[in-house]
Amino acid sequence: MKAVALYGTLGSLVLTALVAVPAGGAARPATAGAPAPAPPRIVFGSCAPEEHLPAGVECGRLAVPLDYAHPGGKKITLTVSRARATGSPEERQGALVFNPGGPGASSMNFPLYAKVERWRKTARAYDFVGYAPRGVGRSAPLSCQDPAEFAKIPSASPRQPSEAFKRKKFAEAKAYAQGCARGAGPALRHYTSANNARDLDMLRAGLGEKKLTYMGASYGTYFGAVYATLFPGHVRRMVFDSVVNPDPRQIWYRNNLDQNIGFERRWQDWGRWVAKHHKVYRLGTTPQAVLRTYDTVRARLSRKPLGGKVGSAQLQAAFLKTGYNDAYWPVRAAALATYVKGDPRLLLKQAAPQPGGEKADENGNAVYTAVECNDGLWPRDLRVWNRDNTASARVAPFETWDNAWMNLPCAFWPRYAPRGAVQDPVRYSHDVTDVVLPQAGTPHRPVDVRTAPGALPPVLLLAAERDGATPYSGAVELRRRLPGSALVTERGAGTHGVSFGTNTCANQHVERYLLTGRTPARDTFCGPRAEPKPVLPAARKRPAK
Asked: Percent helix, strand and coil across the chain, each rounded to 5?
């Protein structure tokens, strides 16, 4: 399951042996004779109309090597955006680069946050810099399937999939992986977290910054930690918000299994909140009753989609957002309540995909798939997927199978052998179909993210105890691997994305760190943010037929 991009709408690294080079340079592949040359300074000007950014935001482009093992070879171009610091020259501290997560999310709109009150003091000191990582948006865009086919609705998401349904999803995953290989060709292997980290160092140099000030959320914490491992001497300050577990054994297959448990816990949290407000929503006086009501609606939409647009898969996608952010609790409860009472309009409005976003949605999914499949050590035997997800679904039925279907293309992903190696097709047999992979080689192995004591300046980590997308254990693990880091915990909370939200305590720690470099105690705790208030729209008169 994608660690959804924070602050916009709201995952592992592969490393061919690298060593850091002095400030101003980039990563040096151990097998290459020279590092990638530092890029020229980015020239900023007006933004392309496709970016939909207002006046006052500048845009530029950054050329980076497609393959860092051959830095003099083919280049790809990344799009970059910037809003200049609003304070005096004496206040300015450089550029703050932000990544919102994914993989597959863009931060091109990050400069807009310079005008948000909670960011105001930080915006006085920093240029706010966003960018589209490789593969995303107009940065060497990646596609694996016709967007119209990818966005085809309605579709089904049964709580307990049949063997026939599983076979259908296996075939779809295989076709999607093949589409990625056809669409990108040999370039596909270079969409990785390692290269995202290397690109980040090229961006630092292109901005003219000797050291990087960076804020990453969700997946952005992972390749930010990879950056800290590769380039500790290039780090000035780093904020990691909603932390991915970087343990190589977790990347990415086991992180996704852990997500299932996290989202189930959050789903129960939502059920308890709705039950507490039974007088408003009338969906049940216990969490179990509320969730049974939802399951009844889910089964009904599997049989007969709403308005020809919302099947059970669209319903699931809409209600998964309750696991990401408490702000969705009242609106989703209202949609379910009005539907049960006979008015489907609110549910249709919230769960039907908005037209016009098909291309961006497929692009984001393609990048997510390529990065995670290239990064991690994935099972190749579908019997393993079936066994592990069947076991997961017994304790975490809400999201397990949808998460499995999203990541299943990685079971069919090509393995890339070293150049010039003899490659024999390898056949994987299982009880569904035979899969012949055109390439067999040594898979990428996740990096052992960590830094030596004193090698990295103090960094700030933030996490919510009940986060579903990036479970809390990941933040504890990263703190252990980055000596000198400090962890701010939002107790009893589960919204994915802690900083510059509604928790004043957390915001103060982030602002103080970015402005002064001071971190709090190694273990610091903030109370939870206030729960949302229940809201039920007034009954609307049905239009006459």
From this structure: 40, 15, 45
Report the half-sphere exposure of 529 (CA within 13 A, side-chain side).
23
359: part of which helix (H) or strand (E)? helix 358-375
Going by the DSSP 8-state scheme, the letter that residue 45 receives in this structure is B
For residue 436, count other CB atoms closer than 10 A to its CB.
8
pLDDT tens string 124-161: 999 999 999 999 999 999 999 999 999 999 999 999 99
Catalytic residues: 218, 467, 496
Residue-wise pLDDT for 154-193, tens only, equals 999 999 999 999 999 999 999 999 999 999 999 999 999 9
Q: DSSP assignment of 415-463, as one string?
A: PPPPTT-----EEE--SS--EEES---PPP--------TTSS---EEEE
Rounded distance between C-alpha atoms, residue 88 and residue 469, angstroms? 39
Rounded CA separation 388/394 (Å): 10
pTM: 0.90
Please provide residue 80's backbone torsions phi and psi, each rounded to the nearest 5 degrees.
-135, 145
Tokens of 162: 């049949």
